[in-house]
């Protein structure tokens, strides 16, 4: 078991190294994209301050809580993009039939199609996001217990994100449609930038229980501030386990239906 | 140009317009998914500001009713103004496809303008359908429009449309000199999404920041047209109309000449083989 993990880790690091080499070839792109992402982060951060310039509470959330929510969103979003960037390049593999060359290799295909393209840019951005997140959490008087649940639920959010990415891959196998699906996932995730309570009840319900964006982003922050009851914590674990299992089943179904070149 | 030639010319571009519409109907799913994405993007600012104005009652002159009105028209007109096919140009420069267009007996700028027009009309129709359905389902009262400033609305709408066209062309012409064509477009998109007023009405900002944004081309893309039809009365006391007329004309002239200049320069430096 340990030997297998060590081997997979070695392959993952090798793919990551190759990915870093490739992305560092386009230096102009790195500068522009980093600039764009930083600009977006700062402008949206500014909007939070703008909103709170006239009120102290929005939908039951204070300024500091919304800042931590926004930073948690950025952390989960950036971390999943850092790991799963290769999903964005999956379609050409299916369309061209080059996926066959990966499927016959003696390692799990997820090592390549899911984790094989670690993004240098997101890694660079993750450092300031995490530092800011730690800084703002330390400003708050949070107990060890609530911090523990926060970290566990952030990890749980990353599991849900993993499940979504596997769903996209499976859908790619079945329909060759990847680009639009992954962008819709990103758009839906963006709904979690602000507290899920700002949406009308039916939308909040959908984004908590059906497409669990709220579980991914809002729940960890709620746990940090003792807004979350045990029932919801249990539900979070259940939904992540359910989605991950379902996505793997869906991937296996996709593999069965996959007809090599031309999808 | 006599009437016959003019009719022939317009017939040619009308053909481009119709063909672009047909293209969209051939790839219906892609377009519908695009509209779904635009609609999801609308939900965040709409509900955020609705919650804020419900709580604060009056946020820098905006009440619940005026914020609903602003985002209603913002969703309706955002992609009528910002929708464009000029994003394809950079890719066509890179893969050499642009040669096919250069050989055709038509103006490149007009060709793309008519393609844009088809895109805009489809976007407008679908956004109207979406927002109507959304307001009906969630029982949100439909806003009333302000017809007092209708001429200003049409004026700013037309200016915003042309400003976006030349600005977007200019960014695409970057492809003549660099293979990194998506990165500048990404920055442009970020700036537009925040500074043109799609995330919040720009006049809720502190006066000095609002004034600084008025010096950039972004608010003229769709903040001003949307404002003129939704709630112009809240803007009148905040801005000098002479300044905004000057600035929008200034940016339009600048981008018009820059786009022409870089197009000429780009063509001179462009070379391709294999077609």
Estimated helix fraction of chain B: over 70%
Biggest beta sheet attributes of chain A? 2 strands, antiparallel
Shape summary of chain B: globular
How many structural units, i.e. domains of chain B? 1
Number of strands of chain B: 0
Query: Which spans of chain A have pLDDT < 50 for at least 5 consecutive residues?
Result: none
With strands numbered from the N-terminus, the spatial order across the biggest sheet of chain A is: 1-2
Q: Give start-end ranges of low-pLDDT stretches of chain B.
A: none
Give the chain pair forming the largest contact, with residue counts.
A-B, 33 and 37 residues
How many distinct helices of chain B? 12
Mean of residue pLDDT of chain B? 88
Given helix and strand content, the structural type of chain A is mainly alpha
Query: Gap between N and C termini of chain A, in Å?
Result: 34 Å
